[in-house]
Design goal:
CATH architecture: Up-down Bundle
Distance between the termini: 65 Å
Number of domains: 1
CATH superfamily: Ferritin, core subunit, four-helix bundle
Low-confidence stretches: 2-7, 14-38
Structural class: mainly alpha
Length: 201
Amino acid sequence: MTYATTRCFDWRYLPIVLLLTVVAACAPSQGMDHATAGHGVTDAQAPFDQQFIDMMVPHHEGAVEMAKVAATRAERPEIKQLAEAIVRDQTREVGEMKGWRKAWYGSDQTPGWEKMPMLPEMKTPMGNMADDVRRLQAASPADRAFIDMMIPHHEAAVEAAQIAQQRAERAEIRQLAQGVIDAQTREIAQMKAWRKAWYGS
C-alpha cells in the first residue's frame, strides 16, 4: 500500500477487512474427493454413537427409497424379495436408532437421506443417493441397476458398522452394527452371485 493509498484508506473499516480475510481463508476447498462429494461429515464434537446414528439413519433411508423402486420395477422375484426385506428390516432399524437418539441426546432429528453425512474415518466412496434413486426409476434392466447401486451402498454401511464395533460406547449400537455387518455382507455376496449368473460379470 502506497502512501497515497494509505491516506485514502478509511481505517474504521480495518476490522471488517480483517474479518473478510479470515472468512475467505477458512472457506472450504472446492476440490472435494470422490468419497465425500455431495456429502458432509458428521459433527466430530458429538459423541460417536450420535455420529453413527446421524450417518446410518439417512443411509438406511436412502436404501429404503431405492428398494421401494426396485420392489415395483424389478423383473426377477429374487430382487423383489430382497428389496422388500431391505424396506422391512432397515425401516425397523431406522425406528430403533431414532428412538435411541431421542432417549440419549434429546432429539430424533437426523440429516436427510439426500445429503447423508459420513463418519470422518470412512474411506468407501459414496455417490449421491438422490441421483441413484432417479436413475433407478428409469434404468433398464432395473434388476442390474439395483444390484450395481446397492452393492456399494451396502459396502459403505458395512464399513461404518465395522468402525462402530471399535468405537461405539453403547451395547445397543455395537449390536446393531454387528447385525448390519452380518446381513449386508450376506446380501452383497448374494447380489454378486446373481449379477454373475444373470449378466456374466
